[in-house]
Design goal:
The chain is of the alpha+beta class. The chain has one domain. 20% of the residues lie in helices and 21% in strands. The chain is built from 3 helices and 4 strands; from the N terminus they run ββαββαα. Strands 2-1-3-4 form a 4-stranded antiparallel beta sheet. The protein starts with 18 loop residues before the first strand and ends with a helix.
Length: 108
């Protein structure tokens, strides 16, 4: 299966920067494509990682192997090092589909 950007709903092409967002303290995380990350202004990207229980998201660099169709593969999608965090307000404004995804599925 292909890795889909949780915000834009499209396959993330292999070789494109790959990141993931995660609510602090939760196990699940969601892939984001460069297009989704570029929407967030630099001034709203915090260098300090949020702790479990804090509202907002942590954003990490991520890795995955190449799928047969040229996108990233879902099977080995893995978080790597922390990049930045965003507030709940920033997520609501700039990543509304991610907010809906977490609310709809109540991801762990």
């Amino acid at each position: 299966m292909s890795l889909i950007c949780g915000e834009k709903g499209r396959d993330i092409e292999f070789g494109e920067p790959l990141v993931a967002c995660q609510i602090p303290g939760r196990r699940s995380y969601t892939a984001l494509c460069k297009e989704a990350i570029d929407i967030i202004p630099a001034r709203l990207k915090n260098k300090k990682q949020r702790r479990p229980g804090e509202a907002g998201f942590n954003v990490y660099k991520a890795t995955a192997s190449r799928n047969f169709n040229g996108s990233y593969a879902l099977c080995d999608f893995t978080l790597r090092e922390f990049s930045f965090s965003i507030s709940d307000k920033t997520a609501t404004t700039h990543l509304p589909e991610i907010i809906k995804l977490y609310e709809t599925y109540n991801l762990p």
